[in-house]
Amino acid sequence: MNKAVTAPLSASVLEALARYDTPTICNAMEIVAPERRLIGYTTKPLVCPFPDLPPIVGYARTVTIRSVLKSTLPADEQAKRRIAYYEYVGTGFGPRITVIQDIDGADAGYGAFWGEVQSNVHKALGCLGVITDGSIRDIPQWAPGFQALAGSIGPSHAWVHAEHWGGEVRVAGMTVHSDDLIHADQHGAIVIPIDIAAKIPEAAELCGRRETPILEIARSPDFTLEKLKEALKRSAEIH
């Protein structure tokens, strides 16, 4: 099902980004694109059942779902739409991350779109994980290595179904468009603009170098307030 499509970034850039956790990527973004300091990342808490999984970096597949209202489409049309959805998720450049907004408002998470079946199917389609403000279930049977950030964990799928895909979604405060580059781990997720992605790893290294003198003295048995002041001064001089 996967089509050969040229990705906007080389695999080496994605691999470099994946070496850092998402908070470090956010720190680096403050250096490279300070105008994005208040936008582009999750701002509300999400449940992560697999906190030990490494960071994931991939291109967004955007979807809206709902579960409180039953689909009014006939069964054959629902089946066609399910295939069309999988074609959207499983094609284009990769790797991919599915970003799903639950549009049930106050009832978001009423029914779980994600569980044993969807996690395994999406993994097979080339996705690395899901970010959703909806609910997930079947945690013990979840596809191995497939990351999940979710609004909640619940037992039933109710009338859950995909409404639309390929458009703009907003999940936990993060606005995402189809094919946006996403970095995510147990802390949350952030959109990395394609045109500055290659600059982020170097900025992340700079962040690390600036933190080193502060952490060294903070962890030292010889810590004093004066030494902390000196470390802060040294940190500020690192460029």
What's the structural blueprint in terms of helices and strands?
Blueprint: H1 11-17, H2 22-32, E1 56-66, H3 75-89, E2 96-102, E3 112-114, H4 116-124, E4 127-132, E5 135-136, E6 147-149, E7 152-153, E8 161-165, E9 169-171, E10 174-176, E11 181-185, E12 188-192, H5 200-218, H6 225-236
Parallel strand pairs: 1-2, 2-4, 3-5, 4-6, 5-7
Antiparallel strand pairs: 1-8, 1-11, 9-10, 11-12
Helix pairs in contact: 2-5, 5-6
Binding site for Mg(2+): 138
InterPro entries: RraA/RraA-like, RraA/RraA-like_sf
Keywords: Magnesium, Metal-binding, Transferase
Task: Note down, in words, how this protein is organized.
With 239 residues, this protein is α/β, with parallel strands linked by helices. The protein has 2 domains: 39-192, Glucose Oxidase, domain 1, CATH 3.50.30; 202-237, no CATH class. The chain is 31% helix and 23% strand. It contains 6 helices and 12 strands. The strands form 3 sheets. Strands 1, 2, 4, 6, 8, 11 and 12 form a 7-stranded mixed beta sheet that branches. The chain has a 3-stranded parallel beta sheet with strand order 3-5-7. The protein has a two-stranded antiparallel ribbon with strand order 9-10. A hairpin with a 2-residue loop joins strand 11 (181-185) and strand 12. Helix 2 crosses helix 5 and helix 5 packs antiparallel against helix 6 (225-236). Mg(2+) binds at residue 138.
